[in-house]
Amino acid sequence: MKCAVSRCVLASVLLLGAPLAEAADYWYALVGLGYGKIEFYPADFASSNNNPQIGPASSETIRDSDLGFTGALGVQFNRNWAAELNFIQLGKFSYKYTYGANTQEDIYEVSGWGVSLLPTIPLTRNFSLFGRLGVLAAQTRLTLRNPALPSITPGAPTFDGSIQAVQVNTTTFLSGFGAQYFFNRDFGVRVEYQNLGAVGTSSCGTCTGRANAQFLSGNAIFTF
To answer: Could you say which DSSP state residue 36 is in?
Structure first.
């Protein structure tokens, strides 16, 4: 019972950022770069769903992948369980609509803070596999460059060259899996896939549109 209570306290301390490293197996910091990818919801982005006064675009161009980065602070309770507070900047993506000589670009950015438990399976003294189960406080920002505006002629939008931005915060389920290897007690590397779930919002005047977000990263781990 005492051990279980101590672990609960340590998990709470991790979330609050208090330094109680002496009570844990070890603490660690992590930094990494990765490949961010999203899948735009066609119902929210396809120009075929536009206001009839705007009409569908003559062509659409999608950039759904980008370079992102991540960082984390974690505590390894024992060989089989860890808890982690992490930050993910997924990257910058875009959805372009071409209307004759004019182009509207929707720039889509995703970032967030996550809190997770990491069940761990040691295969050797230095090498282990792990999973991730947690929640993500996601921030999604949509910037519209040169948006198409309704005109009195259906299907012939006007353009004023303006820039508009919308930002929303949502909470999603964060999951993932990966492998890590420690060269010594102070330094290791990790490869991980994370599924950030559905980010963004829809069906409102100030929505960003929705997308499914994923992140594949390579990381350096420093223990202390």
So the answer is: E
Decide: 45 and 88 in contact? Cβ < 8 Å.
no
Burial classification of residue 213, based on how many CB atoms lie within 10 Å of its CB (0-12 exposed, 13-18 middle, 19 or more buried): buried
Across 45-49, 77-81, 211-215, least confident range = 45-49
Residue 20: the pLDDT is: 39
Closest CA to 217 of 48, 91, 52: 91
- Domain ranges in the chain are 25-223
| CA torsion, ordered 111, 18, 20, 224, to nearest 10 deg | 40
| Structure tokens given for 45 | 């982005």
pTM for the full model? 0.84
Contact 194, 215 (CB under 8 A): yes
Query: What's the rounded mean pLDDT across residues 162-175?
Result: 96
CATH architecture of the domain formed by 25-223? Beta Barrel (2.40)
